[in-house]
Design brief:
Number of domains: 2
Distance between the termini: 56 Å
Structural class: alpha+beta
Largest sheet: 5 strands, antiparallel
Number of strands: 11
Number of helices: 22
């Protein structure tokens, strides 16, 4: 039986793996329990870790530190890869407002912490630790510890202890604030979904199919290529039914249009009125009506699975001239895009191709259409991205008047790189495609490891600190957590009419809190919170680190 005692009470790899497995599995099981219809989800891993740590199930510090940081890197990198393609468009649509609101949360939190320091007499170093825990910002804790050492030449254990005591209820406070705002404004998820879709510009850019009859004398006798130059709007003519011959064709750029010809056009909602005004009136013919006209033409979706196609534009493939087919739409991450000749294709895209059965079979050979290849993980791009993210996060930025350099850290760097790679990687022939299930697996493993490590690290001295006066720190931390979030959350909802799903992401991102984001995504049932989170996260991370350092530099006597 000694081997069993050594396995639980000893050290080593087997012990570490066992403790992680128990903490994570028990935490996930507890996370499925709902109280009053509410579940804290993966946050239970944190509390399970504290429980285990309190009763002496510890992991060696170097292992614990490595697993915590590596788990956080996996989580934020997966988030960045997922939201990267929509990150820049979301920033244009309201990112400035979201970042200003997030910056306000940081500022109000710092002011609240300073006021509590003055009122309670708690040392500013301890209060900065409490603040870092209350806003669940580990890089801020590290920056505060380093700055304190640079100023005094000694370490202050109360910084880390304040962080450990405030952190658990900081996570809970963020989630409770999200729930409280939902209750205050009586949020209806179905209404929020419809509201977001109606205001989302990406929906206006999705490909739509409609039929037109050529009635404008100005374009009689002109080729489709000439009309494209006249309209200067993104659209694709999928099929043409010639009025004089009754022949249905897959159009080429040189195909000439005549009076009363009927066209099946693919464009977006923003362009439909302009195209209709210049070509002719819309007619009541849907895709099934077109399919009945000629059984020789078929429409099929083909997946891009050949890596050499990644990053190439539709026009450069010359599929029309070589095979006599027409690409009408490109489905990317569930969204139909117009198959503009200048659109670069990415691995995993599904293109809608119209043509003869034989021609489409030839095009399949060019594009791949092998689902087996899509299921293979592209680990090269993932680990190159993580390496670049760690490099970026380690770059010191110097600011006048601040002796200690500021870094984005091991969370901010990988997140920014993941966003950039997922957006621009295909342009430089880098395959970034990852299946949704693989992305979700990486994300969940990362957040589980991170929470388990934080809980195990805080568990040993948690109860003693709370009993011996640290319970006050919990109260201070809750104030620092809830007050800024409620103030800005109410303003964001009432004044700026921010969608609740986006607001959840804003709140989680302003606190740089992965568990809150995980809760928000599970609650929303979509990825809208993740986009809001990624929009404000980089600036917020920077401000959190700067704020922790500035408070010590300015007020430490």
């Amino acid at each position: 039986m000694q081997w069993l005692i050594d396995l639980f009470a000893g050290t080593g790899i087997a012990h570490s793996v066992l403790v992680f497995a128990l903490v994570i599995s028990i935490g996930i099981m507890l996370g499925k329990v709902k109280i009053f219809g509410i579940s804290l989800g993966t946050t239970w891993i944190l509390f399970t870790g504290i429980f285990f740590g309190h009763f002496g199930l510890q992991i060696e510090e170097p292992v614990l530190h490595f697993m915590k940081e590596f788990g956080l890197i996996l989580f934020v990198y997966s988030i960045g890869m997922q939201v990267g393609p929509s990150f820049f468009s979301s920033f244009k649509q309201g990112g400035i407002t979201l970042n200003l609101l997030a910056a306000s949360i940081v500022l109000i939190g710092a002011v609240t912490a300073f006021v509590l320091h003055l009122v309670t007499g708690t040392p500013i170093s301890t209060m900065v630790g409490i603040m870092s825990g209350a806003v669940t910002n580990t890089p801020g804790l590290g920056a505060a510890q380093q700055t304190y050492f640079d100023i005094t030449g000694t370490n202050d254990p109360s910084i880390a202890m304040g962080y450990a005591v405030a952190y658990p209820l900081g996570v809970v406070g963020i989630i409770l604030t999200i729930i409280l705002i939902r209750v205050i404004f009586k949020v209806n998820f179905e209404h929020e979904n419809k509201s977001f879709q109606s205001s989302d510009n990406s929906k206006l850019n999705e490909a739509q199919m409609f039929s037109l009859q050529v009635l404008n004398p100005a374009i009689f006798g002109k080729s489709i290529e000439d009309i494209n130059k006249l309209i200067e709007k993104k659209f694709v003519v999928s099929r043409v039914l010639h009025a004089q011959t009754g022949k249905l064709v897959v159009p080429q750029p040189e195909t000439v249009l005549c009076e009363n010809d009927k066209l099946l056009v693919v464009s977006n909602l923003k362009n439909i009125d302009t195209i209709e005004a210049l070509i002719g009136k819309r007619i009541d013919m849907d895709r099934s009506d077109w399919d009945k006209l000629d059984s020789q033409l078929v429409s099929r979706r083909i997946s891009i699975t050949k890596s050499e196609i990644n990053g190439r534009t539709i026009g450069s493939l010359r599929l029309r001239s070589l095979y006599g087919v027409n690409i009408t739409r490109v489905n990317r991450a569930g969204i139909d895009l117009i198959a503009d000749a200048r659109l670069p294709l990415q691995l995993g895209d599904r293109v809608t191709v119209v043509g003869s059965e034989e021609a489409i079979a030839n095009v399949e050979k060019v594009l791949g259409n092998s689902l087996k290849r899509l299921r293979e993980p592209n680990l090269i791009s993932i680990f190159i991205g993580i390496a670049l993210g760690v490099l970026l996060g380690s770059v010191p930025f110097m600011f006048p008047g601040i002796p200690q350099p500021v870094k984005l850290g091991l969370a901010g760097g990988p997140l920014i790189v993941a966003i950039l790679i997922s957006k621009f990687g295909p342009k430089y022939k880098l395959v970034t495609y990852t299946t949704m299930s693989a992305n979700l697996m990486l994300r969940e493993i990362g957040i589980a490891l991170f929470l388990a490590c934080v809980g195990l690290g805080a568990g040993e001295g948690f109860v003693d600190t709370v009993v011996n006066g640290g319970y006050r720190w919990i109260g201070y931390g809750m104030i620092i957590t809830v007050v800024p979030l409620l103030i800005v959350g109410i303003i964001a909802r009432k004044v700026f009419k921010i969608n609740y799903f986006t607001l959840m992401g804003l709140i989680a991102g302003s606190m740089t809190d992965p568990p809150a984001l995980s809760f928000a995504n599970q609650t929303a049932g979509n990825d809208i919170p993740a986009v809001g989170y990624a929009t404000v996260y980089p600036l917020t991370m920077f401000l959190r680190v700067i704020t922790a350092q500035l408070m010590l530099l300015l007020f430490l006597s």
